[in-house]
Amino acid sequence: MAYPFYVKLQNLSQNMPDGNFGLWYNKFIPISNFDDCKAADEKGNKDNAVTYYHDKYKQLSKDKVNQLLEAKHSDQANYCIVLSPIYETVIFKATLKTPLITGIGETHPHEVSMVFDHNMGTPYVPASGIKGILRFAHTIGLIPDIPPEKIETDKKTGKLFFNDEEDWTGVPQLFGTQAKRGSVFFLDAYPEKMPDLHVDIMNPHYGDYYSDDTNRIPPGDYLNPVPLKFLTVAKDTVFIFRALVDKKNPELTGMMRKAFRKALTEEGVGAKTAVGYGLFDNLKEEESESVLESIKKEKEKKVRFAEAAIAKDEAERLANMSEEDKMIEEIASLQNDPNQISLLVKRCLSENLKNFVYTELKNKLEELGQWKPDGSKQRKAKMKERNTEIESKIHFEK
To answer: Which of 117, 139, 255, 367 is the most exposed, fewest CB within 10 Å of its CB?
Structure first.
């Protein structure tokens, strides 16, 4: 095995799990030897390159990757919020029902690649691919309801077709054409949390036939299949899909939601969808857990700030009030509670307040039915004594 890099960089390769896995995967590739330069594992085994990277991926710190993904979902969610006055957000949280092959056509020495986010090194679904499968799903969904007058016949083949770029289809408004700009922004789709990767395999049976430039090797069962390993995103991974639809055309939002549901659950995302890869289920129109938690914390923070501001204003208001005004407020809030009444009356009588305070106290006691003495002789005597003292405070001239 050899790395076609200088020694210092070769030594750095031992820290692959601490870096950006996507960059390691695409830029730092072990090779079997300098003769054939085939992707290999650390021992130079070119048949084990995919397993080598799969094992390296499993060594990544999930906590670090999840923090990056949380930041990415937060950025996308805030982007949608900023544009919310103009664009309606269409969002789907979907769970992979089958493995996902994303970026299989990307250039890589191993021939079968996977696309990773350049900055985070995590698998994702590019917005361009999402737009393509949504347009396909939307167009397929039109077939049952095509107006008869829109169906044409190909003069050469005799097959029926329709022009999906006419306005009645909604394609120009949603996705755009060469002549018209679409009204939808598509965002890259990322897993909610760091996904597991699985090693899958396909068996091309006629590799010798397809690679024979002399046309001397016919296809047949006598040819040996060549197993080809590749990486897939494991099923049960949750992805978040987002798109922004111009509010000028409200009907487009419903069309986009319908296209999303059909594309994710029936058509599939990524490569090899014809054989069942890239299908989703359990679709929910909700944000990622990290974004929902962030929104919750932000609301709680705003409530705390509001409460603190109210408390500050109240403290300043009370600081500027006279003792009489404070007491008037307490009297006004007095309830028909004997203990509360008794405590407040004692406080009022123990302080040297202005006459109008005691007038307010008397009026409040009358309002509560606590001014006229009643009950036992002892209680009547105490209430009469209390009322006399309050009256003296009212008529006392300072």
So the answer is: 367
